[in-house]
Amino acid sequence: MSAPVALIVGAGDYIGAAIARRFARGGFTVCLGRRNGDKLLPLVEDIQSEGGLAHGYAMDARDEDSVVDLFARVESEVGPIEVVIFNVGGNVRFPIRDTTARVFRKVWEMACFAGFLTGREAARHMAPRGRGSIFFTGASASMRGNPGFAAFAAGKAGLRALAQSMAKELGPQNIHVAHLVIDAGVDTAFVRERMQQAGRDPDTLPPDTLMSPDSVAEAYWMLHQQTRDAWSFELDLRPFGERW
User: Fold this and answer.
1) 53, 54, 12: which is closest to 35 by C-alpha?
2) What residues contact residue 193 under an 8 Å CB cut-off, 6+ apart?
3) In angstroms, how far apart are the furthest CA atoms of the chain?
4) Dihedral sign of CA atoms 202, 203, 204, 207 in order
5) Dihedral sign, CA of 185, 188, 190, 191?
6) Side-chain-facing half-sphere of 61: CA atoms under 13 Å
7) Which portions of this protein are annotated as coiled-coil regions (predicted)?
8) What is the H or E stretch that residue 191 is in?
9) pLDDT range class, residue 244, cuts 50, 70, 90
10) What would the mean pLDDT of 164-190 be, rounded to a whole number?
């Protein structure tokens, strides 16, 4: 039998890459999509060097034709998709008076509209087969707005509502839809740069203050292993010492 297929839309260098490695270790063929497709080559080669199967695709998650084409290519060239993970970000910080219409629209396109396109195409392919998992990466902003994050919170809250609607519609069709709230900083270059700009040295933090991308990836893997008599819709992740 051929390996099951996992498609990661928004396969960035940290969470997306860690998810790809985890599913590859679990026996999946992983298909990776991101706007700058050439940046996927090191990850694909790394997975292949460990004996895994991986394919990289350049795509724009905000563009309908690009998303439709990606799903069609994977289904025809690789195999039926069993797991789809939407992991596009869009985290920007602007005071409300400095948030332009262009910024707000762009963040919404990345955080919410792209999730709709990905989720819809996943459902179109999975529903006739009567199985599959569709997981969406959320953030603290999915649950609450904060100063400077109006655009990001609006997009991520919309993504959460989309995921919830899909879960209620598709669950009875044996398709597991879940939303993950990443409610803390993940150990990435972006987060470390933000901390340095705020006058905090990330290297002085106590152990396990920032989440490891590998730990986050394990949560996605665990979700896909759940039996359907006890599916989770929402899973929130944070370090043990995080205040919330």
Assistant:
1) 12
2) none
3) 56
4) positive
5) positive
6) 33
7) none
8) helix 189-197
9) confident
10) 92
